[in-house]
Amino acid sequence: MKLKWFGHACFKLTSQQGLSVITDPFDRSVGYDLSGESADVVTVSHDHYDHNYVEGVEGTPQIINKPGVFHVKDMVIKGVKTYHDEAEGAKRGGNIIFNITMDDINICHLGDLGHVLSRQQVEDIGRVDVLLVPVGGTYTIDKTEAMEVVRAVKPNVVVPMHYKTDALSFEIDAVDPFLEIVGSHQRIDGNEIELDKKTLPTGGRVIVLNYK
């Protein structure tokens, strides 16, 4: 499968058969560009403009924006209820974590998670091979909380997201403070990687993508 990052919390997952999912599409005012992209499914973690701009995805994708288990052709998408803050949604509302099974790889998109995960939430999410984790703080978990979530989930691969870049139109932390905690990591000169179940790294390797 292919994993492509468009910036912020927006990724495109494409299976070997060509089935595709776009996560958390953004309004262009955010600063990134999603133009011309289509998908079979769009997942929306919460109803904020920088995550719910489904009109920006071409075609007629199925929209999944609630908890539950959804079967779409050869994919299984599990949505788990969480919160956008540490006060059970009192400040910024709810958030849905999506664990997407594609080509026998489980890709977990944390959305705008605003708190560390409980043991029950980790169990509800299930096995995770690739974790897409926000690290910018302010509106989500910060670098330290992100590491706590990584340790709880125990993925093979960690891809940081939702952090400040030169294109992003609002202020959150860059990825570097998170990488200082992580230590060893791999930077990709591009916005796309290919993943194969048989050759997935182990031990929570951190891979940093570009958004272009």
Describe it for me?
Helix 1 links the parallel strand 9 (105-109) and strand 10. The protein has one domain: Metallo-beta-lactamase, Chain A. It starts with a strand and ends with a strand. It contains three helices and 14 strands. The model has no long low-confidence stretch (mean pLDDT 96). The strands form two sheets. The protein has an eight-stranded mixed beta sheet, covered by helices on one side. It has a six-stranded mixed beta sheet with strand order 5-4-3-2-1-13, with no helix packed on it. Helix 2 packs across helix 3. The chain has 212 residues and is mainly beta. The protein is globular. The chain has helices at residues 119-125, 143-153, 176-182; strands at residues 2-7, 10-14, 20-23, 41-43, 62-64, 68-72, 75-83, 94-102, 105-109, 130-134, 157-161, 186-187, 192-194, 205-208.
Structural class: mainly beta
The percent range for helix content is 10-25%
**Which CATH class?**
Alpha Beta
- Mass-distribution shape: globular
CATH arch. level architecture: 4-Layer Sandwich
Number of domain units: 1
Gyration radius, to the nearest Å? 15 Å
Number of DSSP helices? 3
> What order do the helices and strands follow?
EEEEEEEEEHEHEHEEE
- What's the β-strand tally? 14
N-to-C terminal Cα separation, in Å?
19 Å
* CATH superfamily grouping: Ribonuclease Z/Hydroxyacylglutathione hydrolase-like
How are the SSEs ordered, and which strands pair?
Blueprint: E1 2-7, E2 10-14, E3 20-23, E4 41-43, E5 62-64, E6 68-72, E7 75-83, E8 94-102, E9 105-109, H1 119-125, E10 130-134, H2 143-153, E11 157-161, H3 176-182, E12 186-187, E13 192-194, E14 205-208
Parallel strand pairs: 3-4, 4-5, 9-10, 10-11, 11-14, 12-14
Antiparallel strand pairs: 1-2, 1-13, 2-3, 6-7, 7-8, 8-9
Helix pairs in contact: 2-3
